[in-house]
Amino acid sequence: MEINMEKFFQDFRYAFRILIKNPGITAIAVLALALGIGANTAIFTIVNSVLIRPLPFSEPDGLLLTYATDPSIGQERIPFCVADFLDWRAQNHIFEKIAAFSDNRFAYTGGDVPEQFAGAWVTADFFEVLAQQPEIGRTFLPDEDQPGRAPVVVVSHSFWQRKLGADPNVVGRQITLNNNPFSIVGVMPPGFAFPGQDIALWAVERLDPPSRRGPFYMWGIGRLVPGATLAQARAEMDSIAQRIQQETHSTQNDVTFTAIGLTERMVGDARPALLVLMAAVILVLLIASANVANLLLAKATAREKEMAIRKALGASRARLIGQMLTESVLLAVIGGAVGLLLAQWGVDALLALGPDDIPRISEVRIDGRVLGFTFLISMLSGVIFGLAPALQSSRVNLNEALKEGGRSGSEGFRNRRMRNLLVVAEIAMSLVLLVSAGLMIRSFIKLQNVSPGFNAGNILTMQLSLPRSKYTTPAQTAAFYQQLLSKVEALPGAESAAISISLPPNGLEVSDNFSIEEHPTPAGASDPQAPVVFISPKYFTTLGAPLLAGRYFTDNDRDGTPPVVIINDTMARQYFGEEDPIGKRFKEGVASGDNPWMEIVGVVGNVKYTGLEAKEEPAFYIPHLQNPIRFMHLIVRATSNPGALLPAIRSEVWSLDKDLPVARVRTMDQLLSESVAQPRFRTLLLAVFAAVALLLATVGIYGVMSYSVTQRTHEIGIRMALGANPGEIVKMVVSQGLKLALIGAGVGLIGAYVATRLFENLLFDVSATDPMTFAFISVLLIATALLASYIPARRATKVDPMAALRYE
User: Fold this and answer.
1) Which of 95, 216, 239, 730 has the fewest Cβ atoms within 10 angstroms?
2) Strand, helix or coil at 238?
3) Host H or E run for residue 16
4) Using one digit for the tens of pLDDT, what is the confidence trace for 493-507?
5) Which residues pair with 636 in a beta bridge?
């Protein structure tokens, strides 16, 4: 062992001297490796934090999220209603603890100006299910979600610090939320934020006895009893759903309850995109390694005499391989160290550029696992790109190498073939990346060109939520919003104003069952569900959504007048076909329910509420004056810059209610941009990685052709002395590069065909085998290869035949 260590340190010192003696080659290799290793480390840091690191809960594998599903209408995840949750809790045997929660926003009026914070209504067992203990105070008692109990709240660590002055005696302190006094019973530790990353507080949801099944807004969460499985939980949930259908005589025979692991639910949607990016940076590293391997192969040719002398003096083949691998691994370790520095900058850039809705993004950091990953890929890349030059150098022929005297070594057939294979591999891997990026770019362009169903220009939006304790009757709610709309529309620069409970393109708040009198639900089938949007009369004109038939709502469609409804184009076509739906009767909820029948008075164009990529789906609209809702979005169309209206709008809101916060202020253009933030982010990264791969492949082709020209100087001189013209020399060199490019492109097309099918679910309206993208990228790569070959070819034509003949 002592001798081996001594040899290792000898090899290490010698390798270090070799790298120092060749600063140009060393710098190029370190830079290429640093780019590859740095990109891998940066992406792995996010993958580690989002997908690999366990959730910050006790025994997270036992936590399941529960919900309803109805495959017959394409609804894979439907929230519970209160009645569903109470029945589940009463009939449950497989879960140790269960709870329910719903996202919400709370108006806080304890500061200088009213503010709105993200929060959640939760049942009393919520924190027990998650096994989370507070930093200060306690969580909820078992009966604090029962009707009649005083409202209590648990606040986040950041809310406690920023809004409560980190008061150590905060327990028992009252704060005003939604114009109601809430007693603080606890403060959660730093970093705890569930069900959302920006959650500031948790209030107890009072489970008042429901009068009907609906509305659906609650999600369930449960902790399995020891030894129970996900399959058992799903089977029990399904049985409970069937019993509810039998007991309530529900027609929703396709609706079932199901469960999914909490980890999978939180990060599952992000997994495909992150794995695609991880695969992309691995390809970048392999391309960089191939480039460095080509560089070292060229260097190994020049060191044939050195290797021959070492072998003649008794060095074994294993000793020679060990020496060369020591040099390559040392080079990779240096590249890894620089790459780690680049990765830290890269992670900061990714966090700055990335969308806020990437799950667990606040937990992203470089930790021990990331450092271990960086060290591992550095060592592996050192072995990968160093193995071919090491094996090549160890096969040196003593007679051939030593009889050359002082002459520099020349490249043999085996060495040249290895260099060509590496270039082919670079081109193939680059084409896979470029095709993948091309498909993503085409997909993103198509997504951006999707019409949201309205004119987004010059629209300002914001959230308002009237407290129940202050606006106790529907008439008070309706009066507030009517006054506000009148005041806002009178502002200079305001063209029109409206309110809506949901906000396109990605802000659906409520869905419900519906019934059509002339098209009853067939026996045994599920009642259909669709988005239901409560709106003011000028909603569609403010949005710029077209009226296709009938009329819009008016101020006369109010409480006490015949109930009316507007449906969208998809619902009209799906349920009425060629019939005119105007005048037909429609009901929210099941046909046998207590809700009144409403007359269809209009058909409007489709508006996107569940994302631009979502398919067109039925939706219906109810006049706000007939069904006043406290939580609404204010939508204002301006004559020019909508942001300039914000101060005046805030003043008008506070003139009506000084305690009402104006929250989530966005222009509609911002909302559209935010709705495509994730596809834009992954498309941008993949395009950057593909561009780096193309650059590396171009450099690799140029390097091989340039080295080939240098090695063939004598041959070129003879050809020119025998009468070859410059065009023939160019053709000879370029044809060699073209041959490598065509072989690499052929292999790459096969790889791209396989690879792109693995992420076709990330594409929008583009086939994973889109022939236009495959053809364009292939032509681009081959053209780039020709250009990279042409430059050395032109240099070859300038060889002086006499000088070339003296070269050997």
Assistant:
1) 239
2) helix
3) helix 2-21
4) 999 999 999 999 988
5) 460, 497
pLDDT of residue 403: 53
Residue with tokens 């941008």: 684
CA separation for the pair 161, 668 (Å, rounded): 33
Name the pairing type of β-strands 75-78 and 63-70.
antiparallel
Report the alpha-carbon distance of residue 696 to residue 426 in Å, rounded: 8
Cα→Cα distances 534→28, 314, 511, Å: 63, 88, 11
Query: What pLDDT does 294 receive?
Result: 79
**pLDDT recorded at residue 408:** 45
- CA distances 178 to 21, 165, 468, 692, Å, are 72, 21, 7, 52
> E-assigned strands of 148-197?
152-155, 174-177, 180-187
Mean pLDDT of the chain: 85
Q: How far apart are CA 734 and CA 787, in angstroms?
A: 9
Question: How far is Cα 376 from Cα 305, in angstroms, rounded to an integer?
Answer: 33
Confidence category of residue 473, pLDDT binned at 50, 70, 90: very high
Angular region, 569: left φ>0, alpha ψ -120 to 50, beta rest: alpha
Output the CA–CA distances (angstroms, integers) from residue 741 to 154, 419, 425, 439, 701, in the order listed. 63, 13, 10, 21, 9
Task: Give the model's pLDDT for residue 609.
Answer: 92
The C-alpha atoms of residue 372 and residue 395 are separated, in whole angstroms, by 34
The Cα–Cα gap between 497 and 538 comes to: 7
Query: When comparing pLDDT for 326 and 629, which is higher?
Result: 629
DSSP string, 626-683: TS--SEEEEEEEESS-GGGGHHHHHHHHHHH-TT---EEEEEHHHHHHHHTHHHHHHH
Q: DSSP letter string over 320-386?
A: HHHHHHHHHHHHHHHHHHHHHHHHHHHHHHHHHHS-TTSTTGGG----HHHHHHHHHHHHHHHHHHH
The proportion of the chain whose per-residue pLDDT surpasses 70, expressed as a percent, equals 86
- Single out the residue of 600, 609, 519 nearest to residue 562, CA to CA: 600
For the ranges 298-302, 311-315, 329-333, 584-588, the lowest mean pLDDT is seen at 311-315
pLDDT digits (tens, 9 = 90+) for 525-551: 667 888 999 999 999 999 999 999 999
> Residue 807 above 60 pLDDT?
no
- Please report the pLDDT score of residue 185 as a whole number: 95
The structure tokens listed for 237 are 């949930």
Which of the residue ranges 189-193, 507-511, 641-645, 683-687 would you say has the lowest mean pLDDT? 507-511
Give me the residue spans of the domains in the chain: 468-658
Tokens standing for residue 438 = 């091309």
Helical spans, DSSP H, in 165-314? 230-248, 262-267, 271-302, 304-312
Q: Write out pLDDT tens, residues 99-114.
A: 999 988 888 987 778 8
Going from the C-alpha of 263 to that of each of 58, 61, 62, 654, the distances in angstroms are 12, 7, 10, 42
394-403, long-range: CB within 8 Å, 24+ apart, which pairs? 394/307, 394/317, 394/320, 394/321, 394/324, 395/317, 396/304, 396/307, 396/308, 396/311, 396/320, 397/308, 398/308, 398/311, 398/312, 401/304, 401/305, 401/307, 401/308, 402/305, 402/308, 402/309, 402/312
What is the rounded CA–CA span in Å between residue 218 and residue 98?
13
Q: Which two tokens stand for residue 205?
A: 């949801």
d(CA 715, CA 595): 92
| Numbers of helices and strands, H then E, in the chain | 23, 22
- For the four alpha carbons of 142, 148, 149 and 154, in that order, the dihedral sign comes to positive
Higher-pLDDT residue of 606 and 8 is 606
Euclidean distance between CA atoms 778 and 428, whole angstroms: 10
Cα angle value 393/394/395 (rounded, 5°): 90
Cα–Cα distance, 520 to 515 (Å, whole number): 7
Instruction: Answer whether 101's CB lies under 8 Å from 218's CB.
Output: yes
**What is residue 405's predicted lDDT score, i.e. its pLDDT?**
45
Distance between CA atoms of residues 440 and 569, nearest Å: 30
Q: Which residue has the higher pLDDT, 723 or 358?
A: 358
pTM recorded for the entire structure: 0.83
Let me know if 298 is exposed, middle or buried by CB neighbors in 10 A (0-12, 13-18, 19+): buried
